[in-house]
Structure formats: C-alpha cells, structure tokens
Amino acid sequence: MSIVKINVLAVPAEQREVLEQRFASRAGAVEGSDGFEWFELLRPLEGTDQYLVYTRWRSEEDFQNWMNGSMKAAHQGTAGGEGGERPKPAASGSTLWSFEVVQQASPK
Ligand code: HEM
C-alpha cells in the first residue's frame, strides 16, 4: 500500500495569498516523478491555521528519490532550494508528517 507525506505549513494570515500564489505557479515537476500518486494543497477552514501539502507515493523510496531530486528545484527559495530567487518564504514553519495507508476506498 501507498505512503502519505504531509508537509504542515504555518502561514501567517497576511502570507496566505502569497503562499497560494506560489503554489498556483508551482513547478509541476512532482507529477512526473516516479511513484508519485497524488498531491493536494489544503487550505485550513476550521480547527487549525496550518496549510497541509498532502502527497501520496507508491513507496518511501519513491518519496526519498523525489526529495533528493526534483523537489529541490521545485522549492527554489522556499525550502532549501539553492537559487533563492524568491525574497522570503511565505511559511513561517514546517513539519513533515509520514503515514502508511492501511485502508482506502473510492466511489463505485
Ligand atoms: C521548509 C519546508 C517547506 C516549505 C516552506 C515548502 C513550501 C512550498 C511552496 C511555497 C511551494 C510552491 C512552490 C515554491 O514557491 O517553491 C512548494 C511546492 C511543493 N511542495 Fe513544499 N515546502 C517545504 C517542504 C516540502 C516537503 C517536505 C514536501 C513533501 C510532502 C513538500 C511538498 C511540495 C510539493 C509536492 C510541491 C509542488 C512541487 C511541484 O509542483 O513540482 N514540500 N512548497
């Protein structure tokens, strides 16, 4: 079964729009990564102020390969990207959560 990696982003209220705009113009490289299965940017409505970047992968190894490869290019200036072309990250903090999928369902 797949694994789920969720990056939890603390985003100050005045930076929300900036964050969403950055994702709107994201690299789009993750779609081409081997073992990539799903991505969603989740905007908080109730119960938390944190944005979730939900990703699902065929295996831990596929996720690690992405982290060591195109993830870096897709995060220029936000999460250790080397270019730093963008002035300042929109998020003030981040935490990575890891899960394995034990059950799943989709509509019949
Ligand atoms: C310090 C940690 C991180 C921060 C602040 C951050 C923030 C961002 C931002 C603002 C973007 C939009 C593109 C850009 O402006 O660079 C982005 C893209 C993305 N982030 Fe992160 N991120 C971090 C780490 C991670 C991690 C650990 C994951 C793994 C779940 C992740 C998953 C993604 C994905 C899938 C994209 C889209 C890439 C693409 O389109 O190819 N991020 N991130």
Automatic annotation (TrEMBL):
Disordered: annotated span: 71-93
Top-level lineage group: Bacteria
Positions of the ABM domain: 3-91
Coiled-coil region list: none
Any Pfam family the entry gives: ABM
Listed name of the protein: ABM domain-containing protein
